[in-house]
Amino acid sequence: MSSGQRIKNILIGIAIILGALILIAFPEEGIILTASILSISLFIYGIKTLIYYVTMARHMVGGRIMLYLAVVVLDLGMFTMMLTNIPKIYIVLYLVVVYAFAGVVSILRALEAKRYQAPMWKLSLISGIINVVIAILCIIFMRSTNMIVYLYCAGLIYSAIVRIVTAFRETAIVYIQ
Amino acid sequence: MQRDFHYYATYCAAYLAGYSHEECLSICYSAQFVDWCSVTLLSKLKAPLSAATTQLQLEMMDARVDRVGLQDITRIWASFHFLPYDLYATRKRCGKKYLDKYRLICKPNGDLLVDTVELAKGKSLQAVGVAMHVLADTWAHSYFAGTPSFAINNTNYHFYEIVPDGDRFIERKVKFIHNPGTPDDFENSVYVNSLYQTSENTIMNLGHGRAGHLPDYSFMRYKYLPAWADYQEILKDNPKEYFSAFCQMVYALRYLHGDIQTFEKDTYDSEKVAPYEARIKAILIKRQGEPGASKDWKALGEELSGCTIDDFDIERYQDEYTGAEKEQKDSTFLGKFILAALSQKSMVTNRIFKSGNKLAGYSIEYKKKGFRGNRDFKGLVDQTKGGGKA
Q1: Which of B39, B41, B58, B150 to mutate to test the interface with A (most CBs of A within 10 A)?
Q2: Is A177 contained in some domain?
Q3: Residue A176: which of B91, B97, B380 has the nearest Cβ?
Q4: Which chain B residues contact residue A56 at CB under 8 A?
Q5: Distance between CA B30 and CA B216 in Å, rounded?
Q6: pLDDT level of residue B325 (50, 70, 90 thresholds)
Q7: Best interface-test mutation with A: which of B59, B60, B68, B369 has the largest number of A CBs within 10 A?
């Protein structure tokens, strides 16, 4: 990773943490902001897919599917951005799927590591269980706006920390002639 | 390729090239160990994690696909299983982003193959084994890239197996399913492949995942439309290509053994193999998976050397490594394998980086800047300074 990329990752990480803290401080407004972030993400994903089609997928067999996908997602992103009130259930469903999937993968990974007698299995298992518990909490507290915002922010802070930690990793490989 | 080729066929090739039975066992063990040396195993051994030569299925599912994560993945798969053919390949009207991936497509007889074989010259038997794994895989894994890429590695419904039917061949449409627990059904051409996902960097689009294990079966003949080939159909004739791989391995091993002075691309030792050609081709075309293929190669190897070939046992050298003092670890069997793996990874990363492609990460030349970066490679520097065989 170049120095510029490291600095960029650290700054983005800090910005995400600050954003998450603001959401936690104002959870009532936070749910609207969370919904807006998800809508904007969808819109940005549509634009990224369009760029992906132009730079990569147009050279591939059957790549036109990416153009259609980009148009549909972009449209959907714009549509959801225009909605004044997105039902909370969609946000909850999004969180449940993300956390449950990450949890199941981590638990399976822990079982595999245990089979190899690798010490990392405990850490994977704990992380998997935490993710599954969060997914369950999302369902239990489906009606609590505050709790949904807190859980969403927990995920944001976690990914921001991973981003910052990654920025400090020594990744270059030495080559000896 | 699987255990049949990486372990037993490599043993046969090494024996034909002039290595002793014991040396052949070390070479073929190392060649096969490349498919087992994962981060999970290395963490159990408390060995440098950067020496990983493969990733377990769930390690891949769990891997991050951000920039650094993708570089980790690419370093492993491009260095050991999908050696890039031409790092400077060009294609009209394509941007750098596309070309960076396109240039990682694996094919036999690239410049990097020469670098790989030359890197093992004068080194340990473990380094020889690693080089043989890489060489053999350039044949099996042709036309796929060792980095996640939807635009390069995807396949579609146009996928046919060419099946022998009496004295002719017939085409049979391949049906792909996605349940990894289901065994491949050779009779009905039903095979397991990775899920169709339109995300460029998902792990489902790594290497030949979208073509299932078809490239790994020596008897397999198939035709399909690679995502990168502009609607040109490719016919892959594994029996023919695996035979070329075997002849090239014998040639490369004779070079590494010291019988030949230079290693050149596109050169095969057909002469040494000639007495066994019919037998080898018969094994290669037999429609069978494991353990049948391994059994046939093992029988040939034991006939050649007159010695028993022990089955591959992943545990065989682990106690020696974990029980050794810190200073002695590099002298153990696995210690030498780890150094060979680090050396290969460092070389391939350097070549990719020097071509202006950052997909495998950054490479720092020790001669110019001294030691910087990932500390796992410190052992390689110490070893080289000490003049040891990495």
Answers
A1: B58
A2: no
A3: B380
A4: 97-98, 101, 150-151, 200
A5: 19
A6: very high
A7: B68
Q: Which residue has the higher pLDDT, A27 or B285?
A: B285
State phi, psi for B57 to the nearest 5 degrees. Answer: -55, -45
- d(Cα B371, Cα A103) in Å, to the nearest integer? 39
Q: Give the domain extent around A105.
A: 3-167
> Residue B146: how many CA atoms within 13 Å on its side-chain side?
33
Residue B16's nearest CA partner among B227, B207, B251, B237 is: B251
Residues B355-384: pLDDT tens digits? 999 999 999 998 888 888 888 888 888 877
Better-predicted residue by pLDDT, B150 or A177: B150
B389: pLDDT confidence band, cut at 50, 70 and 90? low
Shortest Cα–Cα distance, B137 to chain A (Å)? 23
**Nearest of A2, A87, A108 to residue A38 by alpha carbon:** A87
Residue whose entry in the numeric block shows the structure tokens 């397999």: B220
Domain-embedded: residue A122: yes
- Sequential DSSP letters for A93-159: HHHHHHHHHHHHHHHHHHHHHHHTT-TTHHHHHHHHHHHHHHHHHHHHTTT-HHHHHHHHHHHHHHH
pLDDT at A60 over 80: yes
Is A172 contained in some domain?
no
What pLDDT, on a 0 to 100 scale, did the predictor assign at position B322? 95
Segment A142-166 shows an average pLDDT of 82
In a domain, A78, yes or no: yes
Lowest-confidence region among A65-74, A121-130, B172-181, B280-289: A121-130
Q: Which residues of A touch B79 (CB under 8 A)?
A: none
Q: How far apart are CA B139 and CA B117, in angstroms?
A: 15
CA angle B82, B85, B91 (to 5 degrees): 120
Domain ranges of chain B: 3-150+239-385, 152-235
- Calpha distance B249→B315 (Å, rounded): 26
Sequence-ordered list of residues with C-beta below 8 angstroms from that of B337, at least 6 positions apart, any chain: B30, B33, B37, B51, B126, B129, B130
Domains in chain A, number: 1
Backbone angles phi, psi at B235, to 5 degrees: -105, 120
What was the pLDDT predicted at B36?
A: 96
Using an 8 Å Cβ cutoff, are B272 and B17 in contact?
yes
Q: Could you tell me the pTM of the whole model?
A: 0.88
Q: CB contact, 8 Å: B187 with chain A?
A: no
